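Request: How about a record?
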Amino acid sequence: MTRADESALPAMFERDREDRVVVPFTGADAGTAPFGWGQKAIWQDMQESGNQFTMYGMMALPDGTVQDAAARLSGLMHRHAALRTRTITGQEGRPYQEVAGSGQIGLDILAIGDDVEPTGYIDDLMAAWPLIRFDFQRDWPLRMAVLRQRGACTHLVWVLSHLVADGAAHFLLLDDLVAAGTAGHAAGAARRPQILDVATSEQEPQLRQLSSRAMRYWEAQLGHVPALTFGEPGHPLGQGEQRYWQVRFSSPAAHLAMLAIAERTGTDASRVTLAVIATAIGRATGVHPLTLKVMMNNRFRPGLADVIAPIAQNSVVTIDVTDTSIDEVVTRTRGAALTAGMRAYYDPDELADVMARLDAERGYPARVTCRVNDQRAMVRRGQEAADAGPSEVSQVTPEQVRQRLTETTLTWLGPRYNMHEQANILVENRSGVVSLHMMWDRRCLTDEQVEALLRAVEEVAVEAAFDPAAPTKVPLAVTT
């Protein structure tokens, strides 16, 4: 969808909007602070890409009234300072955040026709509504609506900006919304750290030192990377062809195969997936060793487990997939990802200084332009265990994997208007499948390479599922 398409979206929903309720709120922890490190990182991505990076969600409304929906929204705003945050201009023109102690937020009421199927309506809504842009100086970072059909309010739907929450925070907010409708909701619960607390703590000497230690790791990883992960853009496009495209690959067979690999190697599913993707990239593109960005949630750190803020940050990891077995790549990835995760909490301004110095020393500017973001790694461990528990692993057999190969799908999703990376692979949080949403620059990777890469993910996983000696089939010659 293009920017021009976005401008028409509000009018589309005005046709469905029956009313807008003004919901007042109050809350503690008002004040101002610089952006936290996670906010700086996502703000930088927004400026470079032109994207706003939003999340969306929905829940059924058991009480079925506008009053219930408004009460849930007001309570959410009251309890979480991040949702009462706007952007202001601070020192030296830098963006700051300001948390309000009170205010009002609109709750849209969207009327669904009696003959409209709600699930399909919600799917269409969520394909477009998140693309309506936030004005961060004027708007609250949460947009919410209630769906009404045949006089009853059936669902609550919302869009949330990544500027104030990451994936884990989004799940926490969903839990809060659900719990708000139960008796004895924790009105007197102990105070959680809030978004301003995070920003303030990151100015303290102990965390400044942590950021500086992370920089030494980044220097080691970035000292010899190529200018761009997949080389300079070299594939010409015809007149009118879209440069940026996206595709979704879904494989139940790869899911079962990766569970078998994880069980045999004692490795979590996220790192097995990363190892398999790196091997597939080596097969399809010849780029190896591969240095790529990975998203780490950082919530194992003291005081950050339950905070509503963007805590997740990119780290960088280098994986060698040549002339070895897939199991060995899994072992290498497990160790490399562990180290990368320990060095994923840092001040992006400090990293920018390090990268500028390395560019000067190297003699050319370099960027890591391949990113893998595993949404499942942002989910709480309890839900992850429920999605892929021991009983599922113990039932995996070669015959089951072969049977599921017929269910593999590859769906071309259409263009994107902009990207600031050459390839971005999102591992989606979908139960029972490996679901990869890939976005890429067609001047750097052809459609044929992308399809080969995604199909290689399944091939690598299936080959290694029951064979610890299965080779990566990536030649030894280094091309980067």
User: Anything to note?
Assistant: The radius of gyration is 23 Å. The first helix runs from residue 3 to 7. The first strand starts at residue 17 and ends at 26.
